[in-house]
Amino acid sequence: MVIKGKAVMAIEAIEGTDEAILRGGKWAGDGAVVVKVSKPQQDMRMDVPAVGPDTLKSMENVNAKVLALEAHRSMIVDRETVIRVAESAGIVIVGISSETMHHGKLRH
User: Fold this and answer.
1) pTM
2) HSE-up of 24 (CA within 13 Å, CB side)?
3) What pLDDT digit, counting tens, does each position of 51-96 carry?
4) Cα distance between the two ends of the chain
5) CB under 8 Å to 90, separation ≥6 — which residues?
6) In order of start, what are the domains of the chain with their CATH numbers?
7) Cα-flanking dihedrals φ and ψ of residue 44, to 5°?
């Protein structure tokens, strides 16, 4: 999901994370927040939410500034490169808990 302020700019559909970021980033302009979480009842044995260097490059292309990942339920592919790209682009990566998301406490 791509958000700006309290408005949803894009929700990931069949196109995948990177295309959703590019689509939402066009609407959001600078400073968007990308949130990557699991679906309700998601089978984590076969379908784990994942981000990688391409995710961060898509965020950099639209000047998104925060990547919020569901803690303990997300995978970072090529972590060192992700961190390097995030630092270079000024992107902050944070972990959010399931409890925070389900009780409406997620704020930015």
Assistant:
1) 0.84
2) 28
3) 999 999 999 999 999 999 988 888 899 999 999 999 999 999 999 9
4) 14
5) 65
6) 2-95 (3.40.140.80)
7) -70, -10
